[in-house]
Amino acid sequence: MADRYRPDSEPTTRTLLQRVLDTADLRTPRRRRSRRTLAQRTFLESPASKRLSSQTKTTTRRRSHGARSVVRLAHVQANGDLEEQTPRTLLKNILLTAPESSIVMPDSVMKPVEVSKVVQSSRQESSQGSLELQLPELEPSLTLAPGLPAPGKRKQRLRLSVFQQEVNQGLTRSQEPPGNADVSSLTSSLSLTFATPLQPQSVKRPGLARRPLTRRAVDIGALLQGLRDNSLASAPPADIVLEDTQPFSQPLVGCSPSVHHSLPHPSHIGIEDTERAVSHRRQSIGPGQQSHKVTEAVGSQEVMEARKSKESSEDEDTSGRPAGPELASSTPDLLKTKQPHQFLEPPSLPPGVAVLSSEPLESMPVRLPPRPRTAGPRHHQDPYKAGLSYYAKLFSFYAKMPMEKKALEIVEKCLDKYFQHLCNDLEVFADHAGRKTVKVEDLELLMRRQGLVTDQISLHVLVERHLPLEYRQLLIPCAFTGNSVFPTQ
Amino acid sequence: MAFSTTVAQKKHVKRKAPRGFLKRVFKRRKPHLRLETRSDLLIHLNCLLFVHRLAEESRTNACESKCGVIKKDHVLSAAKVILKKSRG
Fold first, then answer.
1. Are A462 and B56 inside 8 Å of each other by CB?
2. Taking residues A246-268, what's their average pLDDT?
3. CA angle in degrees (0–180, nearest 5) for B75-B81-B82
4. Shortest alpha-carbon distance between residue B37 and chain A (Å)
5. Cβ contact A440–B42 (<8 Å)
6. A chain contacts of residue B73, beta-carbon cutoff 8 Å
7. Could you tell me if residue B14 is inside a domain?
8. Domain that includes residue B43, residue range
9. How far apart are alpha carbons A135 and A119 in whole angstroms?
10. Is position B4 within any domain?
């Protein structure tokens, strides 16, 4: 077969149809061989080859026998192709078998064969030429109605068959460009027949022609999905806003509704506390700003927050915010720049912080009048606050969630209370042991009472878990060479 | 053989314990007591565990209220529970 040696640039319908044209009337020998091959391998080709074989039996005899040699070659090819079973080979086989409906003979038999091989074969035997053309087209259309796979495809076949009847009757086979051979085209019998065999093949076996198509579709879909997921999950809002490319428009649009859904929550929950939340969300909304509705929602949220602002710091933020919506509606970039500004405002809240932190400080001097004061409130506050903020930062690390600055201040207050409790307890324990020095045993007793150290979890386990190596070496006695243990007990 | 307290290769400890801070705090509150050299490390460990529990609890509170951000009230309610737990 010439088509065999022809370089297969692409297994497009066009090329396939061309091959069909070249390999006209390959039915008779192909039929037999195809049967055998079918017996060997019942796969995609089998339905098509079966149909073709049944058709070839009856029709090819009458039609022409000149292509036997060619058919043999094709058959050989088919055998080899079947074994290979690539889409290309499958399509080739289809083309080889398809020619029944090629120019030489308008084969509506191709279509009916898929539907009901038996019926078609019988029909073929009965009719010849135009009759064959018509009957198989008509009968398969009739037989299509009784139970046959793919009713949707049956409808197509019906239409095709009807149309083909008209066409075949009126015209000789006109080789339509292969491109029309797709389902939509009804002009050429070849195209029609080509389309129909393809469909049942796809129905019975994963479609030969459709395989590459489905692959591509899935890949694109998966790619878009992956893009969406990445844009939603990993990329921080700023990055998304910066990128702002068209491919991301879809994922952003996709995520904007999700963000939009999250938007009503802060409005419902607690607007007075949603400053930070809104600022956070606005960052997340940044990418979604491409969708106008999101910006409008943001603007509405900001307005609501502007109403509910209570503190001066909040006023500062809200004063920035009303300007925000205008910018938001205009461009997302401006909003993006605004967000960092607004974020800068909350951190620089010395008055608010001082107000909040002064409360515990005042309690301290009241409680500790006899304590020697080293350098007054400033000395007390700065390093003390620094130490507490160190632990507050650890809190934000452990929480793994975004936090408000006010929440961090509350954490610091908590820590202060905790230190009070801690020192009192240690004093009690040391006193109970008759000592004036707090030792490791006192700490262990404290942790046991707190429920951190249990029978299952020992102190050493906790030390190993949470402390760095240097401290572990200091705390856990370990044996060294020379019969020495460090730290000594 | 005494083991050196510092590693030869790198002297940079991640998450250093604020030993001076802890000692100062203890001294401020209980000047009549003394703190052993290694016990402040354990105090640091205790602080870490306390903060850890607090963070877990406040994260749970925030997730229960379906918030993506930890808020004051989450921390407050968590602190109530954990401080009660941490009372020796």
1. no
2. 45
3. 80
4. 8
5. yes
6. 270, 273
7. no
8. 19-29+37-87
9. 10
10. no
Q: Which two tokens stand for residue A298?
A: 């943001």
Q: Alpha helices, DSSP H only, in chain B?
A: 19-29, 39-64, 72-86
Contact B47 A442 (CB under 8 A): no
A window 357-396, beta carbon within 8 A of B: 368, 371-372, 383-384, 386-387, 390-391, 394-396
Contact B56 A398 (CB under 8 A): yes
- Greatest mean pLDDT among A139-143, A148-152, A173-177, A479-483: A479-483
Looking at per-residue pLDDT, the higher value among A335 and A23 belongs to A23
Nearest chain B residue to A421, by CA: B87
CATH code at position B62:
1.10.20.10
pLDDT by residue (tens digit) across B1-21? Answer: 455 555 556 677 777 888 888
Q: What is the DSSP letter of B68?
A: S
User: Alpha helix (H) ranges present in A173-288?
Assistant: 189-204, 210-229, 237-243, 246-262, 264-269, 274-288
- What is the structure's pLDDT at A88? 81
Burial of A175 (0-12, 13-18, 19+ CB in 10 A): middle
* pTM beyond 0.80, yes or no: no
- Helices (H), strands (E): how many in chain A? 26, 3
What is the domain count for chain B? 1
Residue whose pair of structure tokens reads 């797709």 in the numeric block: A182
On chain B, the residues whose CB falls within 8 A of the CB of A272 are none
Mutation pick from B64, B70, B73, B81 vs chain A, by most beta carbons of A within 10 Å, is B70
Kindly determine whether residue A415 and residue B51, on different chains, have CB atoms separated by under 8 Å: yes
Which chain B positions have a beta carbon within 8 Å of A418's beta carbon?
Answer: 47, 50, 83, 86
Measured CA to CA, the distance from residue B83 to residue A410 in angstroms comes to 13
- CA-nearest of B27, B33, B37, B22 to A374 is B27
Q: Are A139 and A119 in contact (CB under 8 A)?
A: yes
**What share of chain A in percent tops pLDDT 70?**
28
Mutation target among A421, A437, A438 for the B interface, most CBs of B within 10 A: A438
Instruction: Answer whether B86 sits within 8 Å of A450, measured CB to CB.
Output: yes
A228-234 average pLDDT score = 64
Q: What is the mean pLDDT of residues A183-201?
A: 47
Nearest chain A CA: its distance from B85 CA (Å): 6
A398 and chain B: CB distance < 8 Å anywhere? yes
Spatial separation of the C-alpha atoms in residues A319 and B16, rounded to whole Å:
41
Look at B69 and A403 and tell me if their CB atoms are within 8 Å. Answer: yes
Asked, as a colleague might, if the bond just before A369 is cis with ω within 30 of 0, I would say no
Place of tokens 């090629």: A102
User: Residue A76 and residue A92: Cα distance in Å, rounded?
Assistant: 12
Task: Name which of A280, A422, A475 to mutate to probe chain B: the one with the most chain B Cβ atoms within 10 A of its Cβ.
Answer: A422
Record: contact B33-A484, CB cut-off 8 A: no
pLDDT digits (tens, 9 = 90+) for A389-442: 888 888 888 888 888 888 888 888 888 999 998 999 999 999 999 988 988 888
Q: For residue B53, is it within any domain?
A: yes
B9 is a domain residue: no
Task: State the complex-level ipTM.
Answer: 0.89
Name B35's bridge partners: A438
What is chain B's Cα-based Rg?
18
